[in-house]
Write a structure and sequence with these properties.
alpha/beta; 5 helices; globular
Length: 151
């Protein structure tokens, strides 16, 4: 059975391509997900993409990932980065290694965006690379994280 990665996108990421393109670029979430699927297939991993504007739905999907044998999570928590202890607790509760991802450089933006509830527990944190950050995060998850081979 191939290794698997869950790609989670939080609130407002469904607006990629139209929301503040000067910050987030013109690629849509559908573009990002299609590229991620293509990349995953070349890396011999499966990838499932999930987006929600709702904290509870993201928590439910993280918990389901543990039951479904997901090996790694790449998460762009969006605005929940700065507010969600609950998503942090879900990630810690399932014990699946995760990469935190942001399209913009959160450290070059408003001061409230400088704090993350995830960074100290993430295996890696990628920010400021635009949507290329998804490519880097998926490659890192597939090639460099200690993902056990499934029999």
């Amino acid at each position: 059975m191939p290794r698997s990665i869950l790609l989670i996108n939080g609130p407002n990421l469904n607006l990629l391509g139209t929301r503040e393109p000067d910050i987030y670029g013109s690629a849509t979430l559908a573009d990002v997900e299609a590229a991620a699927q293509q990349q995953a297939s070349t890396l011999s991993v499966t990838l499932e993409a999930f987006q929600s504007n709702h904290e509870g739905a993201i928590i439910d999907r993280i918990q389901a990932a543990a039951r479904n044998g997901v090996d790694a999570i790449v998460i762009n928590p969006g605005g929940f980065t700065h507010t969600s202890v609950a998503i942090r607790d879900a990630l810690l509760g399932v014990g699946i290694p995760f990469v935190e991802l942001h399209v913009s450089n959160v450290h070059a933006r408003e001061p409230f965006r400088h704090h993350s509830y995830f960074t100290d527990k993430a295996i890696a944190m990628i920010c400021g690379l635009g949507v290329y950050g998804y490519t880097a995060a998926i490659e890192f998850a597939a090639k460099h994280m200690k993902i056990k081979e499934k029999l």
